[in-house]
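Final report, closing paragraph on structural work. Over the funding period we assembled a curated collection of sequence-structure pairs, and we close with a single example.
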Amino acid sequence: MRIAVEHRTDYRFSAPVFLEPHEFRFRPRTNAWQRLDRFEFLLSPGAAGSTANLDVDGNEVLAAWFTGLTDHLTIDVRFEVETQRTNPFDFVPPHQDRLPMHYGNEIRSLLLPYTRQAPLPALQQYAEAVSERAVREPSSFAAELARRLHMDCRHVVRPEGAPRAPEETLRSAEGACRDLAMLYVALCREVGLAARFVSGYCLAEEAERDELHAWAEVYLPGGGWRGFDPSTGLAVADRHVAVAAGPDYVLAAPVTGRFRGQATAEPLNSSVTIRRTG
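Its predicted structure, as stored:
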């Protein structure tokens, strides 16, 4: 499937400010199941200099620095990708793997940042119930968890702010896509599965409006990193465009940076258009 995205992000300030160095994660991945065909990235004001870096999760990060004062920072992104994975379960899982998950010695240390650091008792009962329903099979758990959270939690729109704590999202039974993604990640980690946060876009037929989206990826034996979206209740296939991933949402954020000056930031203004082109 070919998908085109146009995304404008507009930060406005009450008075001119100096922009500290910023990092931008807007360039979609190119890999075996997603090919980037066209990419345009524009900044206003223009950067005094920039460099493209690759972070520890393989995300392409544009680091930019600025001179002078400005009352705004506008980011325009346009791209087209071809998504190629129509079957999210096109792999053969090892039959012996059961939850709680225990990864082999050859990858265990590499996956430590994506696994549980401390138990979250408020989540254990929910994770255990899903595990039982999935007969403790890892890929079945990953799919069932996305379906259950979609049924149990109401999806809401919250344009700004960090994700809420997973315990709060589960208790309130509602959240924005980033809240549900971090809850999904935490619940996977409760049963030993490595999981990470993903930011990107989703071509959703029933969406009231297009917007930046978030979901999760789980490291499944035999399949590697596979995406699951608790906002839709589905495994990720060719309607999702992945941009960045990280063990925490901060490391997958589209924009990170600060400003200096006697000013306040106005509410974020963002517009996204997602369409199928082939």
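The chain is about 20% helix and 40% strand. The chain has a mean pLDDT of 95. We thank the funder for supporting this effort.
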